[in-house]
Amino acid sequence: MTRKQWQGWGAGEQAQQHYLVEPRALAGGGDLRHVSEFLRASGWRDRSKAGGPLAMESPDRAVRITYDPFVLPGGWTIHGAASGHQEQWWAVLGRQTPVEIVAGLTDALTRPRSAHAPNVWAPLREQGWDRPPNAEHVTATSPDGSAWMQFHQGPDGEAMWWSGAKDKQGNGWTAQFAPSTPMHLVQAFSTALASPEPVMRPLGRVPHSAQIRTTSVSVLPSQLSAWQQARITAARAATWARNSWAASRPRTTARHHANAGGARTHR
């Protein structure tokens, strides 16, 4: 274990011990606010009840995200309503799924979809994940073998994505995506899953696992607050930009459409 000390400490603040944990897939659940505060800053509604599970709803009410630790197995449930050519879809992620990986998917729900065709395997390949050519199901495994992403096609032809992480003691989590889950969301998840960046956990919240590596860091409360606020500010700025662009677009009135086909017949 190594130890680092952040520079620029302010007067009167007491540093707190945190740990940078890698691989991130084995870092444990983390602070739910990493997900919920970003969504709230992006215009999502908090539908949580006092003392109950977390519940967030998209501005158009098409997507609902819940985190429920009070049921078994518990964890994250994301449900999207049917719209146009998009069937209803869902994704479920275990309670120990790191919030930084959950946010890979949920953050993507707040952004416009890219014009590029999604590729779930690309982020994994870029980080050196292994894909055995003769596996029963198409599977990519992290370099240390602790995390995986699998594509499974059932007898009925429905495609299912399955992912997760597990250490040698059996601790970990799994995630499953409906066949109808938009592929750009599954790619956003795989990108966050494969990221080599460590995640931060406070003292006492680091899982007991021989497969994780930790770096001890001393962090000021003001630094933590500034990092969290930067993420929220980015979400608010992106939301403001999207809303401003939508409001400034030239609109075609219904009357214009009605008259486009020719003169109106009067009775």
Helices and strands in order, then pairings?
Layout (H helix, E strand, L loop, with lengths): L1 E4 L10 E7 L10 H9 L3 E2 L7 E4 L5 E6 L6 E6 L8 E6 L4 H10 L12 H6 L11 E4 L5 E7 L5 E8 L5 E6 L5 H12 L4 E4 L10 E7 L1 H28 L5 H7 L7
Parallel strand pairs: 1-13
Antiparallel strand pairs: 2-12, 2-13, 3-4, 4-5, 5-6, 6-7, 7-11, 8-9, 9-10, 10-11
Helix pairs in contact: 1-2, 1-5, 2-4
Order of helices and strands: EEHEEEEEHHEEEEHEEHH
Helical fraction equals 25-40%
Number of strands: 13
Instruction: Please indicate the percent range of residues in DSSP E strands (runs of 2 or more).
Output: 25-35%
The chain-level structural class is alpha+beta
Task: Please give a structural write-up.
With 267 residues, the chain is an alpha+beta fold. The protein has one domain (2-113, 159-246). It is 27% helix and 27% strand. The chain has six helices and 13 strands. The protein has a nine-stranded antiparallel beta sheet with strand order 3-4-5-6-7-11-10-9-8. The chain has a four-stranded mixed beta sheet with strand order 1-13-2-12. A hairpin with a 6-residue loop joins strand 5 and strand 6 (75-80). Helix 1 packs parallel to helix 5 (221-248). The termini are far apart. Pfam families: SPDY. This is DUF317 domain-containing protein. Residues 252-267 have a biased composition (Basic residues).
